[in-house]
Amino acid sequence: MGDATTPGVLRFSYGIMGSGKSTVALQVHHNLTRRGLLGVLCTLFDRDGTAVSSRLGVSRPAVEVTPEVDLLAMAHEFALVNGTLDFLVCDEVQFYAAGQVDQLGAVVDELGADVFAYGLLTDFRGRLFEGTQRMMELADEHVPLSVEARCWCGRRATHNARLVNGAMTREGETVVIGDTEAPETPLFGDVVTYELLCRRHYVEGLTG
Questions:
Q1: How far apart are CA 51 and CA 53, in angstroms?
Q2: What is the DSSP letter of 187?
Q3: CB-side exposure of 115: number of CA atoms within 13 Å?
Q4: Is 97 helix (H, G, I), strand (E, B) or coil?
Q5: Which domains does the chain have, with CATH numbers?
């Protein structure tokens, strides 16, 4: 890692909400840094803002990948300042632009760094996110996360359903930040939450 002559890997690990992707991202980052490797933790639209946070309560500051961020330029600058770049750990890659996913591929090819990317597969409409689609097209490895979330009926959950004030919706902006639990004190008029459903109950629109 950290040498353009040494092949790196672009690995995309994916699942639905509740599948533990942020927890795994934090664990991978922790393990790599403990080995003395140098890298960057990145995210976008995390529930804690400019951090990668797990529902287990673990959080770590991260670089926010806003649309204007050039990840390849950032990686080259990090390598110039620190002498090397061994890895990037990127959470919430479903929200990255397709061009930024291309930049992650270039980080692997030009710098020999490993890129560990984590994200959701589909949005609340059951369609691939832009960043996810490009990642599936470009990644060297595709790894489904092993933690299985469950629908209210007990079957394996496969879809993230969006609820607005408790009612399931299939319309609206692709990116609306929410969680699987409603906030105790809503800050705005509508309360947006997400429920994990199996395919059957997602299609039928039956929530728990």
A1: 6
A2: S
A3: 31
A4: coil
A5: 10-144 (3.40.50.300), 159-204 (no CATH)
Of the candidates 200, 189, 186, 113, the one whose C-alpha atom is nearest the C-alpha of residue 151 is 200
Question: Taking the model in full, what pTM does it have?
Answer: 0.82
The yes-or-no answer on residue 92 being catalytic is yes
Mean pLDDT per 10-residue section of the chain, whose length is 208 residues = 71 88 91 96 73 69 92 97 97 95 97 96 91 97 86 91 90 68 56 90 91
Looking at 53-121, list the stretches that DSSP marks H as alpha helix, in order from N- to C-terminal side.
71-82, 98-111
**Catalytic hit among 77, 92, 130, 184:** 92
Which residues are part of a known binding site for substrate? 175-178, 194
Q: What sign does the dihedral 105-27-63-131 (CA atoms) show? A: positive
